[in-house]
Amino acid sequence: MNTFAAVLWKDLVTEWRTRDRAVAMLVFSLLTVLVLRFSHPMGALANTDEIAPGLLWVAYTFSSVIGLNRAFATELENDALSGLALAPSDRGWIFAGKALANLLILSGVQFATAVFFGLLFDIDFTPVAGRLALVAGLGAVGLSSVGTLFAAIAVRTRYREVMLPLLLLPLLIPILLSAVRATAVLLESGVLPDGPIRTLLVIDAVFAILSFITFEYVLDE
Amino acid sequence: MHESAIDRTAARFRPILGLSLVPLSVAYAVLVMNAPLDRVQGIIQKILYVHPAMAFAAYLGFLITAVAGALYLWRGEEQYDRLALAAAQVGVLFCTLNIITGPIWGKGTWGRWWSWDPRLTVTMLLWFVYIATLLVRSFTEDPARGARFAAVYGILGAPVMVLNYFVIELFRGRAIHPENLEQGSLGDGMGWPFLVGAVVAILGSLYLIACRIEVESLRAIWLQRRREAPDGGECT
Fold first, then answer.
1. Does the pLDDT at position B82 exceed 90?
2. Is the pLDDT of residue B2 over 60?
3. Which of A127, A132, B14, B194 gets the highest tally of CB atoms within 10 A of its CB?
């Protein structure tokens, strides 16, 4: 548990002092939204309601990949990764600390992205803001848990920036499908749909548990 | 020593599998040629004897990959890793053939190449997942670490695919694949070629897996001899 708090604290302090990762994720995410907006005929926003939830999650996914790539890259300096692996506790807690730090950073970026997205696509998120945050958060839990595990793998391969999305994206489909469905229903009717939320919870639990257990073998120095 | 149970089994069964495939393939070809033409679909329906058989072999390969990967992490014996690698490669091969034959049949029968049917989508994702396990292995410098990474990814991939199936069914689509074959759902004369096709594909994939394991175990023996050689294994 101490390891968990220490890793979490270290990651957040490093991030706060440099703000590298959050800024990179945020700018990338805003640019993604901009590109998505341009892919739509300018001015015409006729069927935005249908595609907006999917586009929003595209931006979330891409920016999380950018951030996760950095999550372990900093640990390569001075071979800090070996130091982490030598910590005298269950390595699962290192994973949990890292994943929670990633989750917090991603949530901040998600919030700013949603604001920008709402402005560009002319959607008013304010009436459903709290519920939307819940859906985004549930999706982010799944993204950060497998994402952190795969970031630890990808960082020690060649072409690591390419490897992470190759590993991550195929396994994200269940999260994306349920999150997009939940967002779509929420924007349309203003209520949280039961089914997709329950599915998200199940997927989050499966991903978190599997990642927690298998992280041991990934950080095997 | 590198000769462990899995390598021995592969070496013993490879010739038997190879020999049995010769008459079976001939029988398969004859049965498919003589199978009746479908009244509605015509000749294209004969892809029935190829397409699902490829899927069975692909799923078998992926199942072996996940189980062998878990055993490798648990026991740490290289033989399980050789099995996982062989099964993943052969699985990708059959999955590719399945994904190629599917749209050909789909275009002829459903009128379009692709549909977001759950089984179709999950098979395509499986294909991506297992290509990623092969990539992560070859992009990792240390082979033992690459094997571990591939095993971890393979273990995560298997349950996610099951989950995926339900999620897609829940939110996306109507299934347009026929439901699991019930007794007698195939027309007269169609059962045998279908069955023999499935057997040939499964035996064929086991044969290829055995060949692949033999290559890998020879490679392991060669590496070990090179390490043990007094001159550092330089070729003279």
1. yes
2. no
3. A132
B-chain residues near A173 (CB < 8 A):
121, 125, 164, 167-168
- Residue B24, pLDDT > 80, answer yes
Q: How far apart are CA B191 and CA A100, in angstroms?
A: 54
Chain A residues 120-179 with a CB less than 8 Å from chain B = 146, 149-150, 153-154, 156-159, 163, 166-167, 169-171, 173-174, 177-178
Q: What are phi and psi of B140, to 5 degrees?
A: -100, 130
Residue B100 in contact with partner chain A when CB distance is under 8 A: no
**Cα distance between residue A197 and residue A126, in whole Å:** 20
Q: Do A211 and B156 touch (CB under 8 A)?
A: yes
User: Token match 């089984």: residue?
Assistant: B119
Q: How far is A85 from chain B (nearest CA, A)?
A: 14
pLDDT (tens digit, 9 = 90+) per residue, A123-166? 888 888 899 999 999 999 999 999 999 999 998 888 888 899 99
This prediction has a pTM of 0.85
Share of chain B above pLDDT 70, in %: 88
Q: Are B84 and B64 in contact (CB under 8 A)?
A: yes
Q: What are the Cα distances from residue A58, in Å, to A62, A173, B126? A: 6, 11, 21
Spell out the domain ranges in chain A. Answer: 2-218
Q: Do A200 and A142 contact (CB within 8 A), yes or no?
A: yes
A26: which 2 tokens? Answer: 């945020």
Q: Are A21 and A105 in contact (CB under 8 A)?
A: yes
User: Please, which residues have CB within 8 angstroms of residue B21's CB and are 6 or more apart in sequence?
Assistant: B200, B203, B204, B207
Smallest CA-to-CA distance from B75 within B176, B6, B128 is with: B6
Set of chain A residues whose Cβ sits within 8 Å of the Cβ of B171: 177-178, 181, 196
B170-216 per-position pLDDT tens digit:
765 555 666 554 445 566 667 888 888 889 999 999 999 999 999 99
Instruction: Report the gap between the CA of A17 and the closest CA in chain B (Å).
Output: 32
Give the minimum alpha-carbon distance from A153 to chain B in angstroms, rounded to a whole number.
6
Q: How do residues B86-101 score in pLDDT, each as one tens digit?
A: 999 999 999 999 989 8
CA dist., res. B213 & res. A57, Å (int): 42
